[in-house]
Each structure stands twice: as C-alpha cells, then as structure tokens.
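Backbones bend. We report:
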Amino acid sequence: MDDLVTALLLKETTEKDTIKFVDFMKKLTFKVACDILFGIHDEATQEAFMDDFHLVFKALGSIYLKYPGPGSPYSMGLQAKARISHRFLPILRQRKEELSTGVLSPTNDVLSSLLASRDENKEPIPEEVVVDNCTFLIIASHDSTAILLSLMVWKPSSDKQFYSKVLKVGLSATSPVGLLTRILKLYFNGEKSEQCLFSSNERQKKNGE
C-alpha cells in the first residue's frame, strides 16, 4: 500500500505548488479500495469507476425524483449504477475463471471471497448481489476514510504548534505517517498552509462566515 500511496502522491504533486487535499484524499482512498479490496489495478477502469461512484454517492442523499433533461441527482445516480454494473460484470466473470482454475484463491481480496461464497442452499451469490455489495463497500470505505485523513491534515495546517510536533516526530518515519509529514513539510509551511487545503467556500465555512 505504501508504494501505491507514494506513486499517487508523486503523480499528483509533481510540478505543482498546491493541491486540493480533500479531492486528493478521495482519489487516494478510492484507488486503495479498488486495488486492495477488489484487485482492480487498471488505472483507466479505476478512473471510470470513480466518476460513477461519486454520482451514486450523491444520489443516496438526494430526493427520489426523475425528470427530463440532464436529470436529477437521483436519475444520474441510477444511470451511474447501471454503468458500474456493466463494467463490473466482465471483471466478475474473469475472476470466477481465475478462481476455478486456481490462479486466485478466495482469500486474495473481498471480491474473490464474495464470488467463492455460497448461500444457505449452497448456491453461488448472484452477480447483481456481489456488485451491490462491492458498490456500497467502496462508497462506505473510501469516503469516510478520506474525510478522516483530510481532518488529520487540516488540524496541523491550522495549528502551528501542533504542526511542529507532528513534523518533529515524523521526520524519520518510513511509513504512511512519514508520508503525511512529507506532505505537511512540502505544502503547509507558515501562513500559506490553509491556502493549500481549502477552496474559498471551505475556508468560509471553517471561519464561520
């Protein structure tokens, strides 16, 4: 996982003075979920999934309305869910073949485990149920984790004393904590720290304006 985090961090920060950290964390946690939980490593597939998963997430908290035109958030979420299922099915069928031939084991990832599971009648779990479980697991895991990690960076960026302590403790770290420290050192120095984290709207909310 450290290699994945490092690669994405370098990709997103090379030749840039600032980054939108909340967006970065959402992308990072989504890619980690795809890679580790479901064994989906293809970057183009991950990017396509990510756009549709965000639409599904928005639809979960929207009013259940359908109307012509571009569509309501709910309608767009339904369309995105259909695209997710369409993209998932070839992955499921390839994974089933790999499981049956012994290339993969049920313990490789969550997706393999779901496909190898059986219900109370010893029947395989239907493909649509597997897709639904994967969909909601990705939404739940990546969004909540992204928020937590963003708050971990927001705190030292807004508190110089706390920032100094984190920097001092983490300078010699060779773990994800060390990566967080590296981000702090590169992007959140002095009075410029908050500019790297928040858009103008987010800063207004933070300041109670």
The chain has ten helices and no strands. The chain has a mean pLDDT of 76.
